[in-house]
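Write out structure tokens for Molybdenum cofactor guanylyltransferase.
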Amino acid sequence: MVRGTCEDQPRCLARAHQDSTAHQAVSRSRGRRRKYVEPAEGARTTSHGTSGTAWAAIVLAGGTGRRLGGVDKPGLRVGDRTLLDRALSAVSGAEPVVVVGPFRPGLTGVVQTREEPPGAGPLAALVAGLAHVPPTVREVAVFAADLVAVAPSTVERLRGALRDETDADGAVLVDEHAAVQWLIGVWRTDALRAALPDRTAGHSLRAALGRITRVDVPAWPGEALDVDTPEDLARVT
């Protein structure tokens, strides 16, 4: 994921939001290129149809933090909150919220599950999480639990892009280097289920999600920042 140098992530995001009047994203569908232009703030309706639960969320929280000395990466504190708390805050409007990873006794208000076998990787974790999403749910947000600056506005923009691009089945952030952030995305549930393999061994998350037609939403400065190394952690603490 993107590396950032902003010392005050919320302030940087607020400044970027004020300075920007529109964000563009490119979706590739059957060889065509289409531009998605985000509507002006306040222009969107909150209606998402008349049947089924609007959206669920899966937070992948099984990272071992090997490059950080084996620490519980989602449990790392940045400011006054853990990285997992930040991810959960971003998806707070979802029902249900499924957290995939080691059991956390103090974690309430979510469904907790584990990939099989434990440590099998993000694709296995996504499959395990999706098993707890009811069939009536139309959209699923899929987020990593090591993200510093994601917020409810991240989900709103992704869901808005997916709603506006009716022939796309997913919406993901892309960073300033045009790198797709596969674990900051929203997907139509049926398309997500269809894209995942029955057996995850030998398959990658990127390959599975890459089969889905998507719209790419540019990240605000620092929005895709994650923590993988001690240097990453030093930048944000």
